[in-house]
Write a structure and sequence with these properties.
- The complex is a heterodimer.
- By secondary structure, chain A is of the alpha+beta class.
- In chain A, 45% of the residues lie in helices and 14% in strands.
- In chain A, strands 2-3-1-4-5 form a five-stranded mixed sheet, with helices on one face.
- In chain A, strand 2 and strand 3 form a beta hairpin.
- The two termini of chain A are 32 Å apart.
- The relative contact order of chain A is 0.12.
- Chain B is α/β, with parallel strands linked by helices.
- Chain B contains 23 helices and 16 strands.
- The chains are: A alpha+beta, B alpha/beta.
Chain lengths: 147, 519
Amino acid sequence: MEKIIREALSGHVGQTGGLIAGLRHVQERCAFVPSETVGIAAELFNISQAEVRGVISFYADFRVKKTGQHHVKLCVAEACQSVGAREIEADLEQRFAVKMGETDAAEFITIEPVYCLGLCSCAPAAQVDDKLIGRVDGQRIADEVSS
Amino acid sequence: MSAVKIYVPLDSAAVAMGADEVAAAIAHEATANGEAVEVIRNGSRGMHWLEPLVEVEVGDQRIGYGPVSKADISELFASGLLEGKEHSKCIGDVEKHPFMRDQQRLTFQRCGVTDPLSMDDYKRHGGLEAVLKAIEFSEAKIVEEVKISGLRGRGGAGFPAGIKWNTVQGAEAEQKYIVCNADEGDSGTFADRMIMEGDPLLLIEGMVIAGLGVGATKGFIYLRSEYPIAADILNKSIEVAHEHKLLGNDILGSGKCFDLTVFIGAGAYICGEETSLLESLEGKRGMVRAKPPLPALEGLHGKPTLVHNVLTLCAVPYILAHGGKKYAEFGQGRSKGTLAFQLAGNIKRGGLFESAFGVKLGDLVNKYGGGTRTGKPFKAVQIGGPLGAYLPNEMLELPMDYEVMAQNGAGVGHGGIVVFDETADLVAQARYAFEFCAEESCGKCTPCRVGAVRGEEVIDKLRAGTDFDENMVLLEDLCELMVDGSLCAMGGMTPIPVMSAVKNFPEDFAPRQVREAAE
């Protein structure tokens, strides 16, 4: 694990914004940002561990735990609210027995709120794994994760 | 016979409605029928209610069909799609569609028309004219054209672009930067995404001109991570630009240099604020910086930096190619040029409508947008993103103009227009404004960090009817403090949606006993 993290980070040392790009790279390789990353990044970027932790915790993209097998991002911002995002939120929580922002017990699905996917003209919108879906509803998301 | 050209958008909105599957089905059907077809992935025209909008080139026309699903393809082929024949999904010549015909597309003139990654297409439709002029001009002359155009920052704040350019140009430094703010986080906005996906070379040309104008040789596009398709297209377009010497050490043979890098954010709304964006671009937490110093003098890595929204930079090539004076002929008052209005939310014809300033809000909502998608009566429209005002029916007569909107307690912002029908609860929307601020505040200043949480609590008490009058006073007091005491627009403008909801929708906020008595 340490070798992978070191590899992922080292290419970004010295780049503008290298720490953020590096952490993204770590997450791509490991599926989340493992705790060992903090010490390694602090050493490579020559900054304090507190600064590394600060960056990891500030940005919503960085996860310190694995997500479920499927990762659903549901847009809950205004444009999607105007066409039922709040109802979809409730539907998904019930359907998969999971709270927004969490992973279900079976680690099948993680559902996260996002604030705008830029699909406001075909709201409500969601992203299921890598797939963008406009005019979405709970059933469509369920179909997508079960296919 | 040469292959029939069929256009299927690669735009995220089209893809979210199934464009990739449609493109694959067309290729498959053509092969099965032995037809010679060339599928071109264009940007979106912005008629998103018709996505995926498939266009077939017939003679000098582009005949549109939409919304098309992959299940429609066989039937469309059988009924003469390749000849542009009539069909229930046919909308005729796309350019002549009423939604397209009434627009004034200066920035989005190529979006949806061309192959976004084809330099030949770009040049054939007027691309590179502006940068070739800029190469001949002095820095001062370039800045002068931007000043004359009256262009203002399109990200929402509406600050005169020419003043920023002048400041950066006049600053002495061995390194200056151009930073494009592509952290388009406002709900109800997608114009930046559309132009980056549909005409990325325009943004590159705009940034190169900005570099030539202020003496910067390095640019960054700070792109939000929620836009993976835009990231892919931007990176490919930078390669294309290098191949054609629009970027690099010898721009179009001029000996001048400019280079560009895409930086992907990590999911923080606050990074759309320019100083927070710069912190983030330096790899740190996106904490807002106090101003002064202005980023124009001490920006990225402490160097003079021109930070502009995507659409501000995308307006520049038109200004250079046609002159600042020509651009300033569009619009009214101090709102010059055009804005890409984004019709979103509960609206029948959602999409992008570029028009000169001065167009009536009501025309955008009803005439072009077609009213609510659900068909239920209109209740409210939020303009200018999550920090924008909620306006009622009576205010739809207002023209889209920075000053007029400001006089009415609202803002044009980035041109986002989110429609709500009668089922909307404006108390819930006001509460959400605080929730969003609490979620996305960088936490640096107290009015924003703590005020947002206190705001949620006060709204909950109002809703419960606890000490209604006292809590209403408290809400107003809290909002005033947030406006006066916050470092940036996040805390400073959150009161706008809240107080506009209170002011314009008093019936939603009335104490429960009053509401019940009325029913």
